[in-house]
Write a structure and sequence with these properties.
The protein contains eight helices and eight strands. With 446 residues, the chain is of the alpha+beta class. Its main location: membrane.
């Protein structure tokens, strides 16, 4: 049994080691998300469903054909009282029983709308609904791209923070070994050794916290991609080069997907109002039917006239006209409600345009500020590293205190983290700038 367990464990371990981490560029991450994320799939399904909605509305303009049938048993037949003068008995009343115990009918009916304004309006609205869902699919695509890109860069920052801590830990550990050697030779105080050990412990604690943050950020990225959480991923360093953006004039808001979607929604509300106004129009339809009826004192199916059961056919063709005259102001009220909805969405369009213009202006400002910050922090990182190297050499030669060395290490770590944060701010602002220009889908082609 122990051998079996050992073999199983080794096999599982070998399988785990054989699963290599998946290298993801931003383009790979976005492409994967658009193919696997539920939001993207559901948006496509809505576009597909809109085709059936059009067919549903179109069906109202096509002939409606139905087959009907019935079988009735009348245990007590209705009695009617008629004037006896019709039967040569004036001044009397005669009770007459009409109908048969069994009645069965079977037939076909046809109805065709000849004029119904709501049907014509519905067809136009259904086609517009399909266009609405197509634009909504585009908006969903952009939202998926934005979320994936933001979290993709978030993973990078957390991993950079971890790299900085690893480097700091290694450098501090080297200093600890130097101090320990000096302490063993009576050239350093025990308090210095204790302080550096505490420093290493604190760095290790921070490192565990960042490792946890990396895992959480990776899980968030996989969720927005629709990727299994257990999949290991690697993000290449080359994906985070900072390239200054060229600013053109403010983008045309009318071309933004969010704005186009609201304009299409406005169009749908206009059709909704027209559909309500159709309640003032008359409707005209054609109806036709052809039926068989069987009647008799016994079960009619399969029975013959000799058994008292008779079958006959009948047919009718007619025109049906409905002219609305007064509906208690119901139609009038519905028209007014549709007017208010139209006025409301027009206000939303104005507000949306302002919001989109604001997003572009803010992204542009953030890009400018981030580039300046990145340049400053890059110089600061270089300077902090030089200070750390000089301080370390001075400490080894006994020309400076351990406090100065620890302060230099802290300053170096802080400078590197600030640079990483500045890069993240830039990349997030870059996404918002691309979004404000309506060009998020270009990230798939990069």
């Amino acid at each position: 049994m122990r051998k079996i367990l050992l073999i199983t464990f080794l096999a599982l371990a070998a399988t785990a080691q054989s699963q290599e981490a998946k290298t993801l560029s931003l383009k790979d991450a976005i492409t994967y998300a658009l193919e696997n994320k539920a939001d993207a799939k559901k948006a496509k399904l809505k576009v597909e469903n809109s085709a059936y909605q059009i067919q549903e509305v179109r069906s109202r303009a096509l002939p409606q054909i139905a087959a009907t049938g019935s079988l009735n048993y009348n245990p007590i037949l209705q009695t009617s009282v008629i004037d006896g003068s019709s039967f040569g008995q004036p001044g009397t009343s005669i009770q007459a029983t009409f109908g048969q115990k069994w009645t069965s009918t079977a037939g076909l009916s046809l109805t065709q709308n000849l004029f119904d304004q709501s049907v014509f309006t519905g067809l136009k609205a259904a086609k517009t609904t399909r266009e609405f869902y197509q634009i909504n699919e585009q908006l969903t695509t952009e939202q998926v791209i934005e979320r994936v890109a933001n979290n993709y860069y978030g993973v990078y920052v957390q991993r950079q923070n971890l790299t900085v801590l690893d480097s700091t830990y290694n450098n501090t550990n080297k200093v600890k070994n130097i101090i320990k050697g000096q302490y063993d030779n009576g050239l350093a105080k025990k308090i210095d050794l204790d302080r550096i050990v505490v420093k290493l412990s604190n760095i290790n604690t921070q490192r565990q916290q960042v490792i946890n943050a990396v895992q959480l950020q990776e899980n968030a990225l996989k969720f927005y991609m629709g990727m299994p959480i257990e999949t290991a991923i690697v993000i290449p360093q080359a994906a985070f080069e900072v390239t200054p953006q060229e600013f053109a004039e403010a983008p045309n808001t009318a071309n933004r997907t969010e704005y186009l979607l609201m304009k299409k929604q406005e169009q749908l509300l206009e059709y909704q109002k027209k559909s309500v106004l159709a309640g003032y129009y008359p409707t005209l339809s054609l109806s036709a039917g052809y039926n068989f009826i069987g009647q008799g004192p016994q079960f009619p199916w399969g029975a013959k006239p000799s058994q008292g059961v008779y079958w006959s056919d009948y047919s009718a063709i007619g025109l049906n006209l409905n002219v609305p005259i007064f509906s208690g102001f119901r139609t009038h009220s519905k028209v007014k409600q549709a007017d208010i909805e139209l006025r409301s969405i027009k206000e939303d369009l104005v507000d949306t345009k302002l919001a989109l213009d604001l997003a572009f202006a803010n992204a542009k400002t953030q890009i400018d500020n981030s580039i300046i910050t990145i340049k400053n922090q890059k110089s600061n990182v270089k300077l902090a590293q030089e200070v750390l190297n000089n301080t370390k050499n001075n400490y080894i030669q006994g020309l400076t205190s351990l406090t100065d060395l620890l302060d230099a290490e802290n300053a170096n770590t802080e400078a590197q983290n600030n640079y990483t944060a500045a890069v993240l701010d830039y990349k997030l602002a870059e996404i918002q700038l691309i979004k404000s220009k309506g060009e998020l889908t270009t990230l798939i082609n990069n």
